[in-house]
Write a structure and sequence with these properties.
- The protein has 217 residues and is an alpha+beta fold.
- It folds into two domains: 134 residues, no CATH class; 56 residues.
- Helix content is 29%, strand content 37%.
- It has three helices and ten strands; from the N terminus they run αββββββββααββ.
- Strands 1, 2, 3, 4, 5, 6, 7, 8, 9 and 10 form a ten-stranded mixed sheet that branches.
- A hairpin with a 2-residue loop joins strand 5 and strand 6.
- Helix 2 packs antiparallel against helix 3.
Length: 217
């Protein structure tokens, strides 16, 4: 009986620990406006680590990548890129590091996991993680129309028998390509990212509505 109780306690503890947590962003002016950020979401996080409250100096760092774990007061992120700013008085040393990119001009490092304290987060960009076919169609349409307008259309408007260039046909081709390119760019606007400014105690007279408080549940 004791073994059964012990096994039940172990399994319950494991299930409790294994539960996925999420980041909840609460809009400070509109309490019902809540954004949930979950594991595997792609984000761009900016942190402020204050080290001199008198002179208001701080290290401002940026982390871009995928959230792999959310736990008490901490977010673990698998980085694609990070920007580290070290302040030394009036001098700031900035280091930009790229991860998992096969480019000899960029530094590739294997240690690309960062544990971020949520109390240091000043802003979060949440990338659109859903594959939207309209975005792919828009990109293809814009590239195709641009390529046709400047690299193919001029040759299709040449009369190779007498060497004349058909200006009217070329202008019509440019107009059609311009419409197609504009339509393609419009489709790409469906790829929207969301920006959230994080602050626990914003000024009471602030005019910004995009200020959020952050907590883990």
């Amino acid at each position: 009986m004791k073994k059964i109780i012990l096994l039940f306690f172990i399994v319950s503890s494991y299930n409790l620990y294994a539960q996925d947590s999420s980041l909840y962003l609460h809009n400070l002016k509109k309490p019902k406006k809540i954004q949930v950020i979950k594991q595997n979401d792609r984000v761009y996080i900016t942190t402020i680590d204050r080290f001199d409250s008198i002179f208001k100096k701080a290290n401002i760092n940026h982390y871009s990548g995928k959230i792999i774990n959310i736990r008490q007061q901490q977010v673990d992120i698998e980085l694609d890129m990070e920007v580290i700013n070290h302040n030394f008085g009036d001098y700031t040393n900035q280091k930009r590091i790229y991860y998992n990119i096969s480019d000899s001009l960029k530094k590739t490092v294997k240690d690309n996991i960062r544990n971020i304290d949520i109390n240091n987060i000043s802003s979060i960009n949440l990338y659109n993680n859903k594959d939207n076919p309209l975005v792919d169609i828009g990109i293809g349409l814009a590239i195709t129309s641009f390529t046709y307008a400047f690299f193919i259309a001029p040759f299709t408007c040449i009369n190779y028998k007498n060497g004349n260039f058909n200006n009217i046909l070329y202008y019509k081709s440019l107009a059609a390509c311009g419409i197609a390119c504009t339509l393609g760019i419009t489709f790409t606007l469906f790829e929207k990212n969301k920006f959230f400014s994080i602050s626990k105690n914003p000024p009471p007279d602030t005019k910004y509505n995009n200020i959020y408080n952050i907590e883990i549940k």
